[in-house]
Sequence to fold (459 residues):
Amino acid sequence: MTSANSDSGSAPYVAMLSAVAALGGLLFGYDTAVIAGAIGFLRTHFALDAASTGWAASSALLGCLIGAGIAGSIADRIGRKKALLTAAVLYVVSGIWSALPSTIAEFSVARILGGVGIGTASVVCPLYIAEISPAGRRGRLVTFNQLAIVIGILVVYFVNYFIAGLGSESWNAATGWRWMFGSAAIPATVFFLLTLLIPESPRWLAEHGRHHEARRTLVRVGGSVQADAELAAITDALREEPVSFGGLLRPGYRTAFLIAAVLAILQQVTGINVFMYYTPEIFKQLGSGTNTALLETISVGGMNLLFTLVALRLVDRFGRKPLMITGAAGMTLAHAGLGIAAFNNLLGTWVLVLVLGFIAFFAMSLGPVVWIIIAEVFPTRIRGRGMAIATLLLWGTNYVVSQTFPMINESPWLVATFGHAFPFLLYGSFCLLTVFFVLFVVPETKGKSLEEIEKLWKR
Ligand code: BGC
Fold:
């Protein structure tokens, strides 16, 4: 890839490497949200009940959990680049395989495999970007990844809509959903080919004694002066003793760990992925036809992208806390409104407005900010481990919420008591809890260097 001036480095070069790695994030969005357009047809095709529908939607997430769990040690052992290539291969294989199954069990295995790819990418993509980028631009480049995730979600909503439009309801139940999953193999192949062209992370190279190659990449990134300084810093950092998992609970680290872990869980119990993965079904339940429901889903993806861009502009100006508090408060109100609508069987446009409102509030707050916090609260020595566990908790919670949504949404007892309002009331209560948690426990980290943030925990 492009050459650079050896004295000043090349910002476009770093941006290009980050963009290639962020393609892994795009596929994370694409591959998790593809289920939205397909789940209704899968349900008809395999005659699924509520629990198996939940399983069909969430099996990939179990794979994500595995992937996120092993990604760190894989990336340490074989390198970041090979870990990304592994994720890409898993994406391709899973895309093709999940288009071909004849049983739901086979489908789930194919999806779990893809999930391992997603989980791996969710750890290694931001890690690679963070390791390749100069300190001053690290935060912004890491948020590139969240942007890529929401673009992936929007793109697959379009693809689903396009594929569903190619045939009738029965064609879609027999064949259309296969194309939806299979389509993921195309961006996955592009990701694989482009990843072949990027260099290994200089930090990993230095750790494995390959200082010469590490320096070569650092020079292209930041120029020779900065390269020597960074190489020295990396070598210094490598001399520090690594901290064990138990070390995360030591005083001084404990609060950082608590904040990252609780926010990771709270981000998911807001029910965001119920909307990301089940939106067309929710819209159908609330009165829309299949085509309208998929079109409405595209507006959900568009809103998500739009307000992620808003958040990226505001997060360093207004800070993390005001965004999260406003967002979580807005999400609480949207859930309350949806609960009232579902309880009274009120259908129509204002349901769409409430869903879009919920998405906007999430996208401007917990969507990007939780990932930023997970990446910045940990002291350097425990950042890797801390991030890995927080990410694992995020996927685990996502799995539980997505698996149980159809079950609580269709439970005869809950429906008899609450109509279809119960899920909204449940997720809404967690949004309210988030407001208080952020207000009273989370400190503001805007504008602080990583070292200043570290000092917060020592108080
Ligand atoms: C969450 C994902 C979610 C996405 C939606 C991310 O921050 O971690 O679970 O699907 O936002 O935009």
Notes: Confidence is low (pLDDT under 50) at residues 1-5. The pocket of beta-D-glucopyranose is lined by residues 146, 149-150, 153, 267, 272-273, 276, 304, 367, 371, 398 (CB under 6 Å). The two ends are 46 Å apart (CA to CA).
